[in-house]
Request: fold
Amino acid sequence: MNDAPHFTSDRDYAARLSDVDFWFPLIEKILRRHGFLDASETPCAGTGGTYPTFIVGNRVIKLFGHLPLWKQSLGAEHAAHKLIATDPEILAPTLLAEGALFADGSWPYLVTTRMEGTPWHDLSLSPAQETAIAGQLGAQIKRVHALPLPQDFSPNHPTIKEIIASARASLFPAHLIDLVEGFFAAPEKPDNVFVHGDIFTRHVFVKNNRLTGIIDWGDARIADRHFELAKIHLNLFAGDKTLLRGFLDAANWPVGKDFARRCLKQALRQNAIGQKLHLSNDTFFLLPEILPLEKIRTLEELADQLFAP
Reply:
């Protein structure tokens, strides 16, 4: 492939995301450029990603392009890798190489180490195992949130119109959406930290019942710390408050009287941001399985039932 790949639509792009044959000439070019080419290693595609991602031996290649906000995702992931490398105790991939495939700077890429283990999504963990790993994750996130606020990021807040529109496009309870604007009316002082921002079942790796790593830092940003709990609790923990309590204890999380309300606000913000950054995103897709939503009449009640530890 001598020319930069071009896609006629997002649907065309999505159909090619995991097509190893389509991307192989570019993967080979990257490996050769950085001295990583090994004929005995066969690339395989990562699953469930937003950008073309391929595993080759102990390395992972991720390419960025096509989507409107690819530059933002690349910048966030690149800056995140530089920052988390300052704490060797954080279990995350190591950045090995970077560059752009074409002279005009199009289709830049990152090469990182491959995490050991298996995604939480693909495991059948017992409740005890899940609780233990939730605690280990909490200890890791405590380290992540303790990192100095980087200059490469600035707080990113969707508008209330974007929050409401994204809620309507999700499985957020429709009968509560008209209450969202009022829910955000009260002023709040954010507790801003550096967050991963997209910790769900495919991004948490486990081996021998131990947390081995957290991958895909392209949604990293400065945000209120409760932003982190949107995907962790509503996706990874599937609303299980036992796991949430174990996580919070291990993270030494400052649980204030407004904890549940802050969590729901940040989940609504995360849903809006995720819909911008990804081909698809619904932070609330498990909500109908977690709670009897038709019985809930206020957002305060929803917040308490979801998040109050």
